[in-house]
Amino acid sequence: MDTEINEFIETTCLFSKGQIKPIFFRWRNHLYKIKKIVFQFHKKIGSEKIFYFSVETGVNSCQLEFNSKEQTWKLLKIFS
Q1: Distances (CA, A) of 53 to 4, 18, 50
Q2: Does the model's pTM come out above 0.85?
């Protein structure tokens, strides 16, 4: 079952050699460590480049979104 969340989150990530790698994110006062990036892709919407990450935290699988123009992260979905 997929649960739509679509909420802004705080994310710690690495930017290295043109790559973005989320490491942790905080949602509703809970810190989640990203154990594995399962899948990632990006798309361009006007002048914005949006990056999507499907990640595993050890507790849940989630979909994250990074908006490179706005410099914001969102938790889009939780998969269970």
Answers
A1: 15, 15, 10
A2: yes
